[in-house]
Structures are given as structure tokens and as C-alpha cells.
Amino acid sequence: MIHIKDLRKTYKTPKGIFEAIKKIDLKIEQGEIFGIIGPSGAGKSTLVQCINLLEKPDSGSITLNGQVLTGLSEIELRAQRRRIGMVFQSFNILSRRTVFNNVALPLEIAGVKKEVIKSRVDELLNLVGLSHLSDRYPAQISGGQKQRVGIARALACQPDVLLSDEATSALDPETTANILDLLRDINRKTGITIVMITHQMEVVKQICDRVAVLSHGAVVEVGATADIFANP
Ligand code: ADP
Ligand code: ADP
């Protein structure tokens, strides 16, 4: 359902052209939890920014459910970005909005009616286990709870894909495990495709069905998690 074909991305630097993505080909299936792993500098952030349409690749294509996402106009891009829900390492939630109003934000921007927003946000807060904290401000909740807000917000506009960029990297191991359980639960309940970008192998081992290993801007291995991380 996400088909990345012959993707290339270079940056111009004072020292010349730098190939952040040399060539990436990947097929991510509908409903799977797919991990993208690799050391710092491998090109993970660049790939994320190409998938969420914030960077334009130099060449190649990204197709989401049959719709080509590369080579679109700004207006088309804005519409397509809604199909991808982003979860960030730093949560990126707004300190002056309550939990409820943080989750409501993308729906407000999309022009959804107030009553519809209310029922949709209630449903999302229930899904991530935060109904009892809906009136709290970010400063009054824990890191794990902030990430639950981030996940609920990412799901608000019913995206086709949840793209998680180091979502658990700022959390302690126990909170990480809880967030991963939540993502697995959401994947089972809604069937949403989840792409997890991480440098933490434990994250991939815990929930990813398949994994691609990036190094120096290219995929060096791809396969079922159990095959990639075969125990000796
Ligand atoms: P990762 O997320 O795996 O750490 P990145 O995609 O951030 O990798 O970076 C891949 C390579 O591209 C790194 O060597 C990085 O320094 C370089 N890079 C990333 N963004 C830029 C940019 N805007 N300009 C120049 N080089 C960049
Ligand atoms: P991360 O580890 O999450 O990738 P970075 O600090 O590597 O964070 O990158 C943060 C931002 O800076 C990214 O948007 C990336 O594209 C950009 N960036 C990374 N490396 C470079 C670079 N060498 N020159 C310019 N921008 C860069």
C-alpha cells in the first residue's frame, strides 16, 4: 500500500552534493507494522520527510494506496498530508491547550463541525486511555501521557498511515513498552498501517512485523523481524 520506488534525495552542502538517500525501494503492506531502523546519519529522517511530503525527493516515487504522492502541487500536497498521521519524539503538543483541545486541533483546522469534533475526540481519548485527563494541560501529565495525546492527535483525521518518528526515544523502558502495547492495540483494532522509524532495536523486536535496515542512504536488509534478528 506504500510503494517507494527508486527514491533519491541529495542535499547541497558547502562541500558539494551529499546523497542522503542513494536509492530506496520498499513495499509496505496494508495493516502491517513496519520498522525502519539504522544508525544516525543513515537517512531515516530524510526518508520520513519524503514520506510525509515535507521534502521533495530528487527522483523516484512514493505511492500511497495507488495515489502517487510525488510531483504534486502545493494544494494537492496539503490534502495528501492528511492521509499521514505523524507521531514525534518530542511529542509536539501545545502547552496552552488542554489534552482535549490538542487532539481536536487537526479537526478544527480541517473545518469539522463542533459536535462531530466532540464525539470524535472522546472516542480517540478513550482509544488511548486518556478520557479521565481530557481537561488537563500538558504540564500536568507525564511523558507517556503526552505521547498518548500525540498518538490520538495523529489519528484524528483518520489517516491511512501512522508514521512514528522515534516516538519512544525520549521515554523510559517501562513507558516505552506501554506505548508500544498501545500502538499494537490500535493496529489490531483499526487495521491502520504503522511505520516506525527508530534507532532502538528493542522497539522493532517488540512490535514490528517486518523491518528494513538502512545504512548510508540505502536499504541493506529487509524482511520479517524474526528473520532479520535471528538468535544464534
Ligand atoms: P538519520 O535520521 O538516519 O540520522 P538523516 O536523514 O537525518 O539520517 O541524515 C542523513 C544524512 O544526510 C546525514 O549525513 C545528514 O548529515 C545529511 N543531511 C540531512 N539533512 C540535511 C540537510 N538539510 N542538508 C545537508 N545534509 C543533510
Ligand atoms: P534526528 O537525529 O532526529 O535526525 P538531526 O539533529 O539529525 O535530528 O536533524 C534535525 C534536522 O536537521 C533534520 O530536519 C535534518 O534534515 C536536518 N539536518 C541534519 N543534518 C544536517 C546537516 N548536515 N545540514 C543541514 N541540516 C541537517
Task: List the main descriptive attributes of the protein structure presented here.
single chain; 232 residues; alpha/beta; 6-stranded mixed β-sheet; 4-stranded antiparallel β-sheet; 8 helices; globular; binds adenosine-5'-diphosphate
Describe the structure.
The chain is of the alpha/beta class. Helix content is 36%, strand content 29%. It has 8 helices and 10 strands. The protein has helices spanning 44-51, 74-81, 99-109, 114-127, 143-155, 173-190, 201-207, 225-228, and strands at 2-13, 16-28, 33-37, 59-64, 67-68, 84-88, 161-165, 193-198, 210-215, 218-224. The strands form 2 sheets. A 6-stranded mixed sheet has the order 6-7-8-3-9-10, sandwiched between helices. Strands 2-1-4-5 form a 4-stranded antiparallel sheet, covered by helices on one side. Strand 4 (59-64) and strand 5 (67-68) form a beta hairpin. It is globular. The two termini are 33 Å apart. The mean pLDDT is 95. It binds adenosine-5'-diphosphate (2 copies). Residues 40, 45 line the site of one adenosine-5'-diphosphate (ADP). One adenosine-5'-diphosphate binds at residues 11, 13, 18, 20, 38, 40-46. Residues 2-232 form the ABC transporter domain. Keywords: Amino-acid transport, ATP-binding, Cell membrane, Membrane, Nucleotide-binding, Translocase, Transport. GO terms for molecular function: ATP binding. It comes from Advenella mandrilli. This is ATP-binding cassette domain-containing protein.
